Every structure is written in structure tokens, then in C-alpha cells.
Amino acid sequence: MKAVTLHQPYASLVALEVKTIETRTWPTPKSLVGQRIAIHAAKKPVRSVYDYGDGTYSAKTPPPGFEHTQDHCWEWIENVNYGGGEGRWYWTAPLGAVVATARLAACIPIVDGDSEHCSYEAPEHVCVGHAACSALHHLPINGQHDVTEIDVTDQLPFGNFEPGNWGWMLEDIEALAAPIPCKGYQRVWNLPDDAVDQIIESEERP
Questions:
Q1: Interval 104-128: pLDDT, tens
Q2: How much is the mean pLDDT over the chain?
Q3: How far is Cα 13 from Cα 39, in angstroms, rounded to an integer?
């Protein structure tokens, strides 16, 4: 089984079926489309305060879109002397482990909504092409750019939807009952046999 490593909280957001599109600067191998892959959480520690991505942080309130992680991935610790506050959130979800599996339904290039390839200009929608020839390569199919508009408003906080990137569409997501510790790698990598066996055993349990 192939695997991809995501930094937290994104791996757990996939397991929670909140994040359903993984964005990368490169496309997945064609042979992987339609296959089931493992979602691995990187070992890199998560900040014990919420990073708003603009240089500011909050010890109490998650940034918009990340509310789903508060009950599942964090624990509030009272009376911690941090910046004079009465407490702070600590990350408790898995690190350095497989947390879910998903079927990679498609890998499609992200197209600029106001480019010549698409007339849809609403910023809260991102246009993506079902053909790997759209804005990224500027190669037409039968003289036309086969572009489909997909509403990804709910996914915008969880990925980089800049034109030229690729959207890995995740479906049939199944969270593991217990995380499976193992070392992760960059790009697509082979999951160790023992980890695959544990996933199979987990899926076979009632």
C-alpha cells in the first residue's frame, strides 16, 4: 500500500472527513488514481497554541475552519503559566503514525478561475480541470480545455489552492481505530508490510 505524509492537524482532519482534498505542487502517479492509500501523520510536533497563519496566535480559539479539531485533537490544560493566561491547548492527536486510509479518486490540476481557461470568477470557488492538460500545461484536448468548476469553499483553510497546484481528491475515508506508528517520508512511499497487515486487521474487525 502506498502512503502520503501530512503534517498535523491536516492528517487528523482527513481522518475526521473534514479535509477531503490534499493539495500538492505535483500530480500523483497515474497508477495510484483509484487506489486506496494510507494517510500518515508527520512526527513534527504541533504548536501548543493555534497558529492563525498571519503571525498571530491564540491559546484559546482555533482559526476559522479548524473548529473540528478542538474536541478531537487538543486538550485544554488549566493553570499553565503561559504568557499570563490561565491555560493553553495541548496537541493530543497522533504524530508519526498512520491515522486513516482513503481512496484517491482523482488528481486534477487547479486552474485560475479568472484565466482564459474559465470564466468563473467568484473567489470562493476554485476551478479545477478533469484533464491533466488545463492551465498547468496549456495543452488543449480536441481544441478545448475541459474545465469543471468545483466548489471547494469548505476546503480552502486546509490546502494551497493556488493555480498550478494539484488537488488529490480523497473519497471513502476510513479512520483507523488506533493509530499505527511508523516512519514517514516525502512524496509517495511504500507502507511497511507490518503496517499494512495492521490496517487489514483493523478493517476486518466488526
A1: 998 887 776 544 444 434 333 444 5
A2: 74
A3: 10
Query: First and final CA of the chain: distance in angstroms?
Result: 22
User: Using CA atoms, how far apart are residues 172 and 20, in angstroms rounded to an integer?
Assistant: 10
pLDDT for 137 equals: 33
Residues recorded for the chain: 206
pTM for the predicted model, two decimal places: 0.75
Report the C-alpha gap between 40 and 26 in whole angstroms. Answer: 18
Report the 3 state secondary structure along the chain.
Answer: CEEEEECCCHHHHHHCCCCCEEEECCCCCHHHCCCEEEEEECCCCCCCCEECCCCCEECCCCCCCCCHHHHHHEEEEECCCCCCCCEEEEECCCCCEEEEEEEEEEEEEEECCCCCCCCCCCCCCEEEECCCCCCCCCCCECCECCEEEECCHHHHHHCCCCCCCEEEEEEEEEEEEEEEECCCCCCEEECCHHHHHHHHHHHHCC
> 100-110: b or e for each residue (b if 16 or more CB lie within 10 Å)?
bbbbbebbbbb
Please state the φ and ψ torsions of residue 20, each to the nearest 5 degrees: -120, 0
